[in-house]
């Protein structure tokens, strides 16, 4: 099946600064893909290229095999900070959406979703909570019945409960409609539960991309006696190493065959993997940019 999003050597620059460079990736149809990376990594730029708001300076981006602007009716997009017309009520925004999307607009779906969440139809959205506004923006995007839904940090301003509700709504909606989702976020722990693909951007480049279960399966944390730079059986790459006087802790990508039994193996979380690759790419930003200990 045609990938939902495919980029080849994609690049975008502002003046002399590249916001995105050499970006080659594929999001298979039907996936929920997380786009993660520190501030300024290029996440918004990639999403804007995929929805045709920006034009590439290098390479190309294809959505279902075509130029993004030619498939706009199939793309739902929620920009950062869920910018809605704040004086309008949710009900009015649903009506307005119907006028703007004449080809396909499922007003009933949006109304049912908002009713289920207890969001008042007659209150200006500017007076709703951040979580409620995010749900309104998601309901409007889903009413378009998009084949591809692009969400730029939709859960950043939400409390943990609202985040969970939002992600559950999203997963439920996607399962029903086979929509592909690309969602940018800094909140790794929330993504591990709900996303099945991962794209890590840093300093305008893709550091890591793939299916979450494969990434978790192919990486391990190893602890053992202090290591030098010698190769370890069963390890393809040491992504990140930290040492005490006697012990080493390594995050590794597994190679062929079993890992040297001298090392104790531990399973990794998505957060472990992402932070290791960010630190590997640039120790100056890495963990500090995520506000977690290295
Ligand atoms: N309109 C613009 N003019 C000039 N530079 C820009 C513009 N938009 C983005 N940039 C630069 O491009 C780079 C990538 O920005 P982008 O907004 O894509 O990052 P991001 O990963 O979405 O960041 P954040 O997590 O802070 O939203 C940054 O260095 C940013 O300063």
Automatic annotation (TrEMBL):
Molecular function GO labels: ATP binding
InterPro entries reported for this sequence: AAA+_ATPase, ABC_transporter-like_ATP-bd, ABC_Transporter_VariousFunc, P-loop_NTPase
Keyword ATP-binding applies: yes
SMART domains: AAA (SM00382)
Start and end residues of each ABC transporter domain: 5-228
Keyword Nucleotide-binding: yes
Key words, A-Z: ATP-binding, Nucleotide-binding, Transport
The protein, known as: ABC transporter ATP-binding protein
UniProt organism field: Amycolatopsis nalaikhensis
Phylogenetic classification of the source organism: Bacteria, Bacillati, Actinomycetota, Actinomycetes, Pseudonocardiales
């Amino acid at each position: 099946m045609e990938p939902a999003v495919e980029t080849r050597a994609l690049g975008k620059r502002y003046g002399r600064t590249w916001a995105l460079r050499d970006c080659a990736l594929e999001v298979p149809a039907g996936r929920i893909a997380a786009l993660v990376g520190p501030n300024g990594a290029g996440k918004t730029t990639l999403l804007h290229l995929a929805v045709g708001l920006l034009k590439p300076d290098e390479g190309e981006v294809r959505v279902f095999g075509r130029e993004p602007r030619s498939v706009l009716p199939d793309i739902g997009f929620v920009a950062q900070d869920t910018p809605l017309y704040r004086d309008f009520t949710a009900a009015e925004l649903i009506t307005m959406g119907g006028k703007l999307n004449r080809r396909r607009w499922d007003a009933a779906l949006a109304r049912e979703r908002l009713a289920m969440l207890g969001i008042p139809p007659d209150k200006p959205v500017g007076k709703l909570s951040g979580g409620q506004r995010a749900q309104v923006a998601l309901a409007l995007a889903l009413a378009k019945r998009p084949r591809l839904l692009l969400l730029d940090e939709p859960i950043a301003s939400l409390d943990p409960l609202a985040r969970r509700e939002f992600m559950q709504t999203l997963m439920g909606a996607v399962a029903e409609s086979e929509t592909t989702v690309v969602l940018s976020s800094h909140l790794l722990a929330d993504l591990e539960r709900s996303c099945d693909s991962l794209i890590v951007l840093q300093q305008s480049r893709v550091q890591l991309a793939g299916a979450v279960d494969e990434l978790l399966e192919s990486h391990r944390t190893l602890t053992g006696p202090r290591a030098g730079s010698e190769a370890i059986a069963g390890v393809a790459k040491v992504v990140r190493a930290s040492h005490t006087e006697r012990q080493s802790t390594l995050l590794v990508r597994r190679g062929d065959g079993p890992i040297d039994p001298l090392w104790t193996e531990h399973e990794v979380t998505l957060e472990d993997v992402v932070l290791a690759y960010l630190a590997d790419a640039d120790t100056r930003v890495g963990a500090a940019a995520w506000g977690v200990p290295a």
